[in-house]
Amino acid sequence: MIITNVHNIHSGYNQAYIYIWVSKLYSVLYIGMTNNSSGSIGRANGHFNRRGTFRKRFIENKGIGIENVNDLILLTFPLPKKREYTGLESSYRESVEYLVVKKLQLKRGLLMPIFDVVSWHDRTPKRLNNSEIKNISDQIVLEFEGVYPTL
What we know:
- Strands 3-1-2-4 form a 4-stranded mixed β-sheet.
- It has 5 helices and 4 strands, in the order ββααβααβα.
- By secondary structure, the protein is α+β, with helices and mostly antiparallel strands.
């Protein structure tokens, strides 16, 4: 039997999230963002199918398929319920995600076990200087730092 609690991250109605997939056994983090109508669980479908970006990055970095990882944990961080984050235009979500990735890359040697961030960004988002976005990304990183040792 597998017990999975998803009630608090399933709803994507008027909600957007930053999420972090964590495997401490394989020392991997994958950071993403979504405004999927099924929340971060709904977005997970795209990562775990044959063409999924998390699946691809995991294989590239660790040489095994993600289906073989038995310690995978999903951390989900709600973004403000504001149109800038929940709407179709994604630059606010992308900017928070980008800053979380960069900040966690800088902290990777300070947390145990050390991890690799396998998320990939091909462009720099345009809202990185927005103070609200900086504050949100700082808060997500702080929450992550607090929970990571206990996972």
